[in-house]
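@channel sequence for tomorrow's demo:
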Amino acid sequence: MQKGMHIDTERCVRAVQSRDARFDGWFFTAVVTTGIYCRPSCPAVPPKPENMRFLPSAAACQQAGFRACKRCRPDTSPGSPEWNQRADLVARAMRLIADGVVDREGVPGLAARLGYSTRQVERQLLAELGAGPLALARAQRAQAARLLIETTPLPMADVAFAAGFASIRTFNDTVREVFALAPSDLRARAPRGNPGSTTGALTLRLPFRAPLNPDNLFGHLAATAVPGVEEWRDGAYRRTLRLPYGHGIVALTPQPDHIACRLTLGDLRDLTVAISRCRRMLDLDADPVAIDDRLRTDPLLAPLVDKAPGRRVPRTADEAEFAVRAVLGQQVSTAAARTHAARLVTAHGEPVDDPEGGLTHLFPAPEALASVDPETLAMPRTRRTTFTTLVRQLTDGDVRLGPDSDWPATRARLLDLPGFGPWTVDVIAMRALGDPDAFLPTDLGIRRAAQELGLPSTPAALTARAAAWRPWRAYAVQYLWATDSHPINFLPV
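structure tokens (generated this afternoon):
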């Protein structure tokens, strides 16, 4: 699969006719005779090829006057893998739009974060996605409204406000236009007995492209969980979330065909941002077929992929938090890193109320950590300097970690900091920035796995061999790590 797939008409027609779910989110099928748009895997009888039009985004379909199919619900398909594997202007813009920046700061705010003019951003998004930032944000608001209508008993006025609409009239008009149903009709069609209607939590299904191997994904998050901020309970990974309008608590449970997501939010306006961050943390928009096919070309990696395909890269819901934790974890065990982080959380984290108990704090923001006395940190003096320098850079904005990060520039900036070597920078690039090609050739676990498999075990030779795995070396890291018996590689019991 590749950039601009929607222009390959013959390939798109084949995908629709075979109802191939691997292509969901890569493009959308607009049917000119019915005025609807669908995901490629729609279960309805495929239209005639001459009646199909292929568009790169749901927003482009809506802008062209098509409404969402009621059977396949294309607005709920996994997001395009493009935005998590690229670091150019369009990909960074799409990550920021998913993070709600247009709703909070407008298109000028989006452009300012990207360092381009508003006109440049609008022109590039329109050229590649068939819709500008306002239309893309509108499509996201429509999806958020649908979720709230179907999963909560909130009055429609509250739904409109929470989804980011400026008025009830705009909310009603958008829902009718996108879904061909009034908001009340959408609610009437929703399944009864949703647990979110009685517990105060929102219960959602997060889709993904199959296969998905949950072992290392949830195993890693659970094994490294910081007490008070994260926990594994009753088959779910739970954690607190720092969000633009307040805080949230999420519980994520792997299921065969989706991730069950239960969200408790202090402010419902944070819904779309919380969903976006959970999807990024679990790497749910990845294209595992394309990734695994590339890695299988190496005969020594192929058996690992065939044994447990669909491994994802465990990422983070808070990039700055992960960078701080990466420094705390330098040259110490997983247990020691958790202990260091837990002490910071207890001393400097923001307390939260967890209706289910177990979670007590948000991880401290860089601003809160700026007041930490280095002498209170139980670590070598050189690492204290690394910690305080990173916190200061994050607080001042000299190092920017987030959806808008320019990966090469951020790597270079981090490498300039004292105590930041290639391993620390690459683990931040892999798990915080989301670079799918980040690689850790000096990692002890990677070198041990390489030696056992017959791969080169010296960093230089392994890096040369790994050139054939690009641009998916971060996923190769997951397969190599999985050869070890460390708890990060196993779904907790």
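heads up for whoever presents: The first strand starts at residue 28 and ends at 31.
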